[in-house]
Structures are given as structure tokens and as C-alpha cells.
Amino acid sequence: MHPATSPPGSGHMGLPWRRLAVAAAALLGLATVVTVARTYGPTRSAASTRALTVATWNMCGVRQWGCADTGGWAEKKTQLNRLATRAGAQVIFLQETCGAELESVRRGLGSSWHTVFHAYSGRDRAGHTTPIRCTTPGAGTAGFAILSAHRLSAVAVVASRQPTVGVQRGILCATVTAHDLRVCTAHLSPRHSDAAHPGWEFRDDQLKALTRAAAARRTVYGGDLNVNPPGSRNPFSWVWPSGPYTTQRECDQTSASSRAGRATHVSGHKFDYLFTALPRVGCTVRDTGTSDHLALLLRVRTG
After folding, report:
1. Strand runs (DSSP E) across 132-279, as ranges?
2. What fold, for 2-301?
3. Are 119 and 132 in contact (CB under 8 A)?
4. What average pLDDT score do residues 155-164 get?
5. Where along the chain do its domains lie?
6. What is the pTM of this model?
């Protein structure tokens, strides 16, 4: 954790930022689903290789976090179901979801689907932590999760530095045994997350914890990292460790030197990432029409 000395960045959890995102969403016409894909390398037949599609999507499902105008849970559940069926995502990282609603989707997909869920909590100035509940009636606790078409094992919450006063997010890992694949999802703290120390920066320590947890070769990791890609236009490039974009390539990374990628937020920023050292088959950015974040889908060869 380091004090931030650079000018304000693009963290998106604050309500003014959310309102800006909602306005941008209206301008972009989010009622229409848009899917754009990129493919990498030669095409192989399904019989010659095993592959898996991993997705990440911030659902903007916690209404009190500026998400009231991004659609109700019925629409969000429909879009999540479509990611798992029409889009073919077999593992889905989710942020800003609600536990009871996610369980409803899992049941609808069938008994072969599994979830692991970790609740967000709020920490007050006295050091007390309380789980954050979704304000939609019956939606349950707010949190982030992994939804998988395959059984998940070795589930672990990865320790990472969190604000002393404010929302506690985190990192969650599990193993997809059927593909011998470790998957790790994260929701990092945007700038000014600590009400007691608004100048403190957490993303550098959180990214280090995430990349250490996902250091194995057979890993896919990412989520809503709340930071732009490293580069000359990003004054917070220093928060990025060395592994992402080098040892592991990002879903939308077109070359070894590239640090760019299509926007995954209606503001025009890229906040959502999927990294792997496995061969990438393709990358898709999908606008669900029910969130200020677009879904990102990575297809990797696993065998």
C-alpha cells in the first residue's frame, strides 16, 4: 500500500462516477447487444484440441452503488444466462452480483453448474466489518463470484490489503479440475476507497497478490481491476507488476509489445481483464445492455 501522489484517476465505484456512466450508457444505446471478437493463431478442429471459454462481467447488480438505472435483476439474470449458453462461457467471473440472484441463475442452468461466492463487507472507523446486502428485495448479499459449468475445487480467498475504513473487496481462486486449470477473479479497490486515508493506493499491493496467486502456467485470472492498462497515458502504470502482458498475455493483447485493449466500460476505459499463459484462441467484448461494464470473453486451449 502506498500513498497516491498523482492526480485523481478513473476509479468507478463512487456515485458521481456511476451517474456519469449511466448517462454515457444512455447515449450508447445499451439496449442492443454488441459482440466484437478477435481470434489468434491458426484454426484447429474441435477434435484436435480442448478449449475453454472464460468470461468476466461486472453486473452492476448492487443498486445502491449507482446501478439503479442499468436494468433490473430479471434482465441481468437473462443476460448472465445468455453468457453461459449462447456465448458459451463455461467459467464466468462476476463482480457486483447478489448471492441469492446468482444462486437462482445457477439452479436454472442445471445441477452440473457450480458457484463460489465471496461477500463484500463494509469496515467502519471502529474496525467492525459488516456484510453488504443488495437493496433489491430478496437479492441477498452483495459480492463477487465464480460461476462454472465444471466442478470447482481448492477454493481460496486470497489475502490482500484493503481499505481501513470502507468497502472490502478481494480476490477469489478455484481449480477447474476437468481442465486442470486454476482460475482467479478479483475486484480491486478504486482510488479514494479508504474513507480514513483517501490518498492511499491499494491496487499495487492487490495486483501483486493476484499475480502471485495465479503464478502457475495453467491459470486464467482477471476481473474488474479498476485501473487502465499500463502505458504513457496512464499516470498509475506503476501499480502494474511485471507478469501481466509479459509472462501472461491479456485477452485483447494483439502483440507482445501491445498494452492496449478495447474499452470495457461505457466511459471508454478498459477496467476488465483476463490474463493467461495458455494459448489464446479468441477474445470477445460483449455489451449485455444491463450494466455500465461490458463482458469480456477469452477462449483458451487447455489440452
Report:
1. 142-148, 152-158, 166-168, 170-176, 181-187, 200-201, 219-224, 249-250, 272-276
2. Deoxyribonuclease I; Chain A (3.60.10)
3. yes
4. 95
5. 2-301
6. 0.86
